[in-house]
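If your schedule permits, I should be very grateful for your opinion on a structural question. I have a record of one protein: its chain in single-letter code and its fold written as discrete structure tokens. Kindly check, if you would, that the fold set down in the tokens agrees with what the sequence suggests. I remain grateful for any guidance, and I place the record below:

***
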Amino acid sequence: MKIVELDGYAANPGDLSWDGLKELGDFVLYDRTNSEDVVERAKDADAILINKIKITDEILAQLPKLKYIGELATGYNNIDIEAARKRGITVCNIPAYSTDSVAQMTFAHILNITNQVAHYADENRKGKWSNNPDFCYWDTPLPELSTKTLGIFGLGNIGMKVAKIALEFGMDVFAYTSKNSADLPAGIQKTTIEGLLGASDILTLHCPLTKETSELINKKTIAMMRQGAIIINTGRGQLVNEQDVADALESGHLLGYGADVMTVEPPHADSPLLKQPHAYITPHIAWATKEARQRLLNICVENIKAFKAGQPINVV
């Protein structure tokens, strides 16, 4: 079995081992692959592994030997699933490997915005505290999370983990979810989209990117939110209209926007959000803890083992 990893650097820049995959067949590694090189590099592969490379119907038509696509992520909107299914190609993803890491980043953004950690650290480097007449100072509001309302859009593995952490902070937790209310843990209240937007002091996005969720945060939905609300996005950049979010930050309707994802990655230098002082953007690293990436590679290996045994798992 020939296995070709087309863009392996993000998942493993050298601090982890590829040995598990090497044991499964003829393993070829590329750190990065341009779109025009995908077919040439994958033409003899039985299996390809990808992260963000787009696999279209046109590409699949040129890869008659291909039997398996391994998505080294949970989201798989970069693959034409119907085209793969039509050709009998199995597509598997990596579910739940980054749950703890993404939940951690979600609260890193929440706490940075509410407690202004980066702001005060920067001010102190400038001597603000050293030259202060009192033993402490603050020049921003310092809200307490307890009794604030956290709205969660999407209650999968990550959304549920975020909800549990929020409950430990003493927050009221509302969720928009397909799950039945009776099946939700105590403390999580199911609501409508309108109810979620109106109730949330902080709204955090944990839903898949679909036609229905594309730009679900826009001028109209932001207007339904409370003055001074906060939005956190560790899902997909395309879940928000970035210009509308930037405008809401500029007007003061939104207090802050914390995101680990952008519509275009890497973002254009003139992105409206990068110019906003109340937009806090991290470079798509919520998933990238060493522990999470090791789990990702471990699950990838098990996915291929199961496929070779004729009993594929994590099929999308």
Observations:
- The chain has a mean pLDDT of 97.
- The chain is about 30% helix and 15% strand.
